Amino acid sequence: MRVGKSLVSGSYTNEMLELQRQTGDVEADRFIAQVFSDPAQKIDLQHILSGKTNTELISELQSRYGEFDFIRDATRLPSWADPKLINAGTDFFARHAESIMSLLGLLSLPYCYAGANGSMVLYLSELIRKQTTKRLHDTALFVWGVLAPGAFDKNGKAYEEIIKVRIMHAAVRYYTLQSGKWNNTWGLPVNQEDMAGTNLSFSLIVIRGLRLLGFSVSQDEQAAFLHIWAVIGYLSGLNEELIPEDSRKAQQLDKLIKKRQFRSSVHGRELALSLTEHILKVNKSKATAKDILGLMRHLLGTEIADMIDIKKHIIPAYKLKTLRAINFLKGFRPQRDTRRLYHEAYAAFKAQAVNVNN
User: Fold this and answer.
1) Is there a smaller number of Cβ atoms within 10 Å at the N or the C end of the chain?
2) Cα dihedral 271→275→280→284 (10° resolution)
3) pLDDT of 220-244, one tens digit each?
């Protein structure tokens, strides 16, 4: 499987990641600087982003700001994108949608919070801490959008979702740097290294979580899921040097970022507390709070769980064994139409979201 450019050295290095830590998204940052310099343009952009949908949004942005490469090429896939792997990736998501969405809260997001410098952006914005439900819902909608069947077809939903997030990230960088609260020793806000780490947490780390839960994930399924997230990363402004060409490189990059960035921090612990409080508040399953926290510790591992102060509960071995057995047996169920599976799972998610918000 090939998803990105090979590194000249054949491996990731501290020096390379340190340089990427000082790099944002040059084109998107230039775009935001231009638009935000004119209050009328800024308001106009806000109206476009909130008032248009799908191809209308892309067309409107291209008609007004087509001189910016990332907008002009917003629907252009990288040369290495493989439609078969993309479709296989969306099929894999559809078959495991409920579990993957649960893993975003139980594993992927808290994993990111252990990155002390990168998570400071979330902490300073206060949105995760003060609007936890809305922010997590927005993240979930993004994932449902970019992993939908046909998301990367000509008029697929992925392009709209991705361009909005790319512009939002540039705006976050702009506002954070303007706030006077940012310490340059942390790197740029939403820098390339942190973007790469986040992409891995939604792809490689999710696969790792599924296997810990007992699901059987083949190498082909893993390759497809990593590939679709590689495409998402590319369109989101992630430099190709930070898009691993295979799972081995993905694991290597994850290991180095973890070594460089993961440590205990006050803000990481506060972000994790807001997240766990939200998860326990909206929990409608039969699982107890201790079981959920114990499962989070099992998925994250003791080292990372302690970094972000996930309470030290241990899920009983028999419960974990039963859960793993059930998930393993799901792999033997007759195959169903993945589009139907996706829409059923998405409908269930929306119904649950309505109940949470009411």
Assistant:
1) C
2) 180
3) 999 999 999 999 999 999 999 999 9
